[in-house]
Amino acid sequence: MKLILRKRESVSRRASLLVPLISFAVSLVFGAILLTVSGANPFATYGAMFVGAVGSGYGISEVLVKTIPLILTGLSVSLAFRMRFWNIGAEGQLTMGAVAAAGMALFWSKGLPGWTVLPLSILAGCIAGAIWAGVPAVLKAFLKVDETLTTLMLNYVAILYSEHLYYIAWRAEGYNSGTEAIAEVAWLSRFMGRAHTGLFFGLILAVALWAVFRFTRWGFELKIIGANPTAARYLGISIARNVVVTLLISGAISGLAGAIEVLGLSHRLQQGISVGYGYTAIIIAWMAQLNPLGVILVAFLMASLLVGGDQIQMKMRLPASVGVVLQGMLLIPMLAGSLFRDYTLELERPDDDVAHAETAEVA
Amino acid sequence: MGILTLFTSIITITLRAGTSLIYSTIGEIYTERSGVLNLGVEGMMLSSAVVAFATAFYSGSVWLGLVAAVLMGMLLAAIHAFLTVTMRARQVVSGLSITLFGTGLSSFLGERLGPESNNFNLVGMVGPKFTPFDIPLLSQIPVAGAFFKQDILTYVLFLLVPASWYYLYRTRNGLNLRAVGENPQTADAMGINVARTRYIYTILGGALAGLGGAHLSLAYAPGWTENITGGRGWIVIALVIFAMWNPARAVLGAMLFGGINAVQFRLQAGGTSIPSAYLNMLPYLTTIVVLVAITWWETLSHRIGAPAALGQPYMREDK
Fold it and tell me: Cβ separation of A154 and B288 shorter than 8 Å?
């Protein structure tokens, strides 16, 4: 028997909603198998993760703490992925944003009025992130250098540079690592536990980007470039300019995430700024199907997995990386499921016109 | 005399550091030659490294460790093949998902497979390893003798590299493989099963990436540390471009990066004033520079090394 795959005119809405949900369930099942094989009780583990993440005010506030950088990096990656620019450098852009924000707050704003330090630090973080994404964008736009590799390599460079700063060059006297704390005037205020007002940057940006994608010509151009670069060229859309502009903004958003981590959470440059949010962002962007509002939800879910992982490490002596494994497993069923979003499956009948269909043998 | 010893030591370290890169690069060359880009190398190497070490640690056999690594690499590569060939997922995203999954899996296994006395952690455990041994006579040659003071996995490369070149360019199977990567429509018309070819060589690439990962945890830096690859899986993707998809040239690129490691090692051992962070950036910055140079050179000389259908799914009735 033969199965016919027919490309849908437009993606199936139902599948767009169902596929991420089913993927999450599949990931939990595979995670349960992995836990069982490694000698842990999956039900107890998942239960403890759930309770640890959202079962208390403390848990929820910690989830929000991680949701903040995940929304921002998720938006940053979604924006670049919209035009099929594979920015996997959000981690490095975030790190450089943190470096620049700390540098501004600690050193470069000396002598300026106190109230300017916070906005200047945020600006510095955005600029640093934009530069870090801008270099691969320019190399791609004008020399066609593969962006996956350049954005990724710059992650390692950024992390090594930040380590050099907080271990050696900027280290506070009397400490093994970490800079001096930044002045309190430049801190973002907190509203629940350690959760801080950085959250609103993410929420506002998500709504803004959603509107931009939906209602502006630029949003339309990104969509066309992503879907069909040749068509974009015929429509007179400059791909090179769009690549550079979009990536400057994408990098700035990741840089903002780093700046907010310093200004709202750690209040200094120290170890633990770069913990993989920029990579989780890739999963978030794809799970949210590049929809900025979806990013908010998925970021919250991913943050819950991370906090749940931390909790079981403390309570059950299980590795915190259970959360990371579950995240890593999400994309696999998600990608397999995209087939059902983009194609319909039909059984072949002898008199079928298969001219525009693609066939796949199913044993 | 001193300078000869220095050269010998640099060549020795270069080869040792380059071995895992060569295995994985040749594997990725096979995969990409079939038209499949697999960005999952980093994840395959990491997961293979951890299972290789864990298996060797418990069984006492490095050889069983190798088998486990190869199986792990093949499993992850098979997932990539299933997603991209059968389910028509985007190759870039599918490869990324393999790397993200493999990275998470390796850190989980590293914190879970260890002995109970060490809180189930594998980090810090000492297990069996491949040790270098001298080949009589040949290892006595000044400087070049360094090539014959290696471990068995490096010696195997002396056969694997020419054999891969021969297979790709001088055999019927190699011709079919290249045809699938260059023009799957024509290959299909010639009677070659495109999907099967892509599955086979993607999984072969995974097996070789598994050996690359195993060399790290069983020979180059015996033991398990989180993120033992340090981005080598990504450098491999760049090396394939640098090698222009030719296994023989892959050696040159891997030697370049192995050489950078050796120089780093020498400078740090010699007590330089350059901060180690900047030295450690060298491989990543070099990758970017090499990529820019090779892309520019390709544009100027109108030569494209990449298989023409690389990254594109093949759909039979599609025009």
Answer: yes
